[in-house]
Amino acid sequence: MHILCRNALKVTVLAVISMVLIPAGAALAERAHVLPQPVLDTAPNQAASFGTPPKQVAVLAGGCFWGIQGVFQHVKGVTSAVSGYSGGTAETAQYEIVSAGSSGHAEAVEITYDPRQISFGKILQIFFSVGLDPTQLNRQGPDTGIQYRSEIFATNAQQAKIASAYIAQLDAAKVYNAPIVTKVSMLSAFYPAEDYHQDFMQRHPKYPYIVIFDLPKVKNLKGIFPDLYRHDPVRVAQR
Fold it and tell me: How far is CA 17 from the centre of its chain?
């Protein structure tokens, strides 16, 4: 059960829990480090283009979508990051159903990006470096259940190839103390989450869960990917 995300609309100040856990969140920022770049990747295409800027989509699941969305909203080249659900059906793409753990959905984020500025491989490098612990099976931090699994929902065969190769590369390099359990599958559909989940980190920066578990991820992003960090996040509300 998601400790705080389960009751997203009930802004309860858990003062005692916060005092105990905030140091743990700070420790996350201290031990983060940049992982190797993907060997198999396509570099950003810097060629000038005319008309509508090109765009590509990546769909990533890595625990509570608040944190993954918040990280990628601060990445240069990302034009949109939307929290939602992937892995199940349209009928079950509702937060209360997904939270029960039997829908097949994972909390995921649809990341739209400009391939002239950032590649899919670089997005994966950021994801694994600051977004999650990919060795945790069907959980992430305090959240347990298949809805909090880590999974890359590839939108095409090339993405699937790059993602699978990168996971094998990281495992071979033994950058973690345990094997990576992040799955790679083909995307069937992405369903945006309810409005109250969108831009949650920006709208509730003092919410205990955000302070403890998610703001350290953004701090990590800024610290180890300074050239890719954007101070002003791109928001769903601005679309």
Answer: 25
- Whether 86 and 190 have beta carbons less than 8 Å apart is answered as yes
5 is catalytic: no
Q: Is the pLDDT of residue 95 over 60?
A: yes
- What's the Cα-to-Cα distance from 165 to each of 45, 97, 193, rounded to whole Å? 21, 33, 30
Residue 75 pLDDT class (50, 70, 90 cuts): very high
Distance (Å, whole) CA 13 – CA 156: 43
- Contacts of residue 148, defined as CB under 8 A and 6 or more positions apart, other chains included, come to 2, 63, 64, 106, 107, 138, 139, 140
Q: In sequence order, what are the residues at sequence separation of 6 or more whose Cβ sits closer than 8 angstroms to the Cβ of residue 135? A: 176, 177, 178, 179, 180, 181
Q: Please pick, among 4, 29, 64, 228, the residue that the annotation labels catalytic.
A: 64
Determine the average pLDDT of the residues in 73-93: 98
Domains in the chain (CATH in brackets) are 5-238 (3.30.1060.10)
Q: How many angstroms separate the Cα of 91 from the Cα of each of 52, 94, 194, 229?
A: 34, 8, 14, 37
* 213: Cα within 13 Å, side-chain hemisphere: 22
Whole-Å CA distances, 69 to 39, 40, 91, 200, 218: 25, 25, 23, 9, 10
**pLDDT category, 41, cuts 50, 70, 90?**
confident
**Percent of the chain residues topping a pLDDT of 90:** 77
**Strand 150-154 versus strand 183-186 pairing type:** parallel
Confidence tier at 54 by pLDDT (50, 70, 90): confident
